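Journal club side-thread
Mid-discussion, someone asked how the predicted structure for our own chain would compare to the paper's figures. Pasting it here so we can look after the session.
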Amino acid sequence: MINEALRFVKKTGADTAAIFDDLARLRIAVFRDYPYLYEGSVAYEKEYLKIYSASEKSFIFLVYQEEVLVGATTCIPLSDESPEVVEPFRLNGWDIDSVFYFGESILLPEFRGLGIGNRFFDERETFAGSFEAIRTLCFCSVDRGENHPMKPENYRSNEAFWLKRGYRPEPSLQATFSWPDTGETASSDKPMIFWIKNI
């Protein structure tokens, strides 16, 4: 049950730039945990997030407790994403203009289990589905394998949730993203798994 004290805000296109500072800090806080183990910086994050303000069809759904950003989810046409995201689809002959890419879904731990994860998908699917050309929704997740030394004993992946939402991993789509792990200064390559849903 979603807490009634929470406030929800929608931003699209150029209007997304206004929340980049807060979103950058939230991304760093959430992605620092397993499985991303991301050692981020606000400067890098704000540079990355510019793809959303540059796209006329980007969408960010934000969750606030009073004035504090506690959760967010993003999506954008695949054609407006970075080359490392687009290239696996291009190499496999996909119609890039028919795909919408779902970026992060991030939520501080104390606000999980309230149904917000489903709300994140509902909002993005509704927005992406409003464009007539869109036939496929997709996102990607990092593959840390089964025996990563920093995997918590009580870790539970989101795969069952994604499957329930109708998404499936697509083995033909493979990508490698690079970022510094927690406590490191140099970036290293990470294999990424794409999940898709046809609409």
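Post-session note: Residues 6-198 form a domain with the Aminopeptidase fold (CATH 3.40.630.30).
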